[in-house]
Amino acid sequence: MCHALRATVFDRLRDALDGCTRLFISPDGGLTRLPFEVLPLPTEGRLMDRYDISYLSTGRDILRFEAQSSGHPTVPVVVADPDFDLSSAPTTTLTGPGGSEDPPFTRLPGTRLEGERIATRLGVPPRFERAVLEAQLKTTRAPRLLHIATHGFFLPTPLAVPAGAGTESGHAALRRLSGPHLDNPLWRSGLALAGANTWLRGGELPAEAEDGILYAEDVSGLDLLGTELVVLSACETGLGEVQVGEGVVGLRRAFVLAGARTLVMSLWKVPDQQTQELMEEYYRRLLAGTARADALREAQLTLKVKYPAPVHWGAFISQGDPSALSMGHNPVVPR
């Protein structure tokens, strides 16, 4: 089936490529959910073995690559391993509307190690557990690099349950995500932060935690003018409502609207351990001067040797400016 898909969506373009190996793809419709890199070559290997691929919202995005941002970037921000059960009444045991004590969002142990190592490379203190607060993230102004490692979700329909939530489909508490304004897909995708479980179960949160959910609508209002790179190390962060001719409306669109120059995101539920390994490989190359898109490709090729199946490394794509990252005067710890 994968060979047939490649023959249908890619092989017809090969003559027009005339030997080019750097490709910018602006997919539409259902193809927005496809990482072209994982498609198999006719003989052996995958497209990523032969082509350098990065993505665009629209073809005109290329015109923005040389434009100077009007924003003034600040130091990088790394947030990971939120305390989903943060509460203003920590001794209270909360249960979901159905009586289950299973947490809607389960902890991802690998995200803490990932956050520690990436923050060390960037020379900044990471934000963990109770410090991953929605209000603080909303007031962060144009970090040069923003790395978020947590659960992501997308509700295809108002009453659907996010597949990336780390729980059984149909969990009653998650249905609280189906709130107002669901005709707008920016309210149906988001990231789980500190206190997300508590809010979903009707518990009380500290004021700075708000509801523990950073919706795509919230993201679109962030000040990311001057942000060179946003990395969403979470499940299905590249998904959203596909509008033919308009691309994907969700976190993917929201971070672009907020001003992010490049976005690294995932198209399916990603494994915790392999994602941690992939991110470490990615940042090692990125901070050594490798271009943004190339650093991701090289990291994926490295993991492909250890984990041949694309499910372990193929979900992540790079959208936007593929060039090398300028870290300005921010401290970077080499390694």
Q: What would your notes on this structure say?
A:
With 335 residues, the chain is an alpha/beta fold. It has a domain at 77-274. The chain has 9 helices and 13 strands. The chain has helices at 2-9, 14-17, 109-122, 134-138, 196-200, 216-219, 251-258, 272-286, 292-306; strands spanning 22-25, 52-55, 77-82, 127-129, 145-149, 152-154, 189-192, 213-215, 229-233, 240-243, 247-250, 262-266, 316-320. The protein has a 6-stranded mixed β-sheet with strand order 4-3-5-9-12-13, sandwiched between helices. Strands 6-7-8 form a 3-stranded antiparallel β-sheet. Strands 1-2 form a two-stranded parallel ribbon. Helix 3 (109-122) runs parallel beside helix 8 (272-286) and helix 8 packs across helix 9. It starts with a helix and ends in a 15-residue tail after the last strand. Residues 91-100, 166-170, 242-247 and 331-335 have low confidence and may be disordered.
Key traits:
335 residues; alpha/beta; six-stranded mixed β-sheet; three-stranded antiparallel β-sheet; 9 helices
Topology, number of strands: 13
| Rounded radius of gyration (Å) | 19 Å
Structural class call reads: alpha/beta
Pattern of helices and strands: HHEEEHEHEEEHEHEEEHEHHE
Helix content: 10-25%
N-to-C CA distance? 42 Å
| β-sheet strand percentage | 15-25%
Outline? globular
How would a textbook summarize the main sheet?
6 strands, mixed
Count the DSSP helices. 9
Strand order of the largest sheet: 4-3-5-9-12-13
Spans where pLDDT lies below 50 across 5 or more residues: 91-100, 166-170, 242-247, 331-335
Question: What number is the mean pLDDT?
Answer: 84
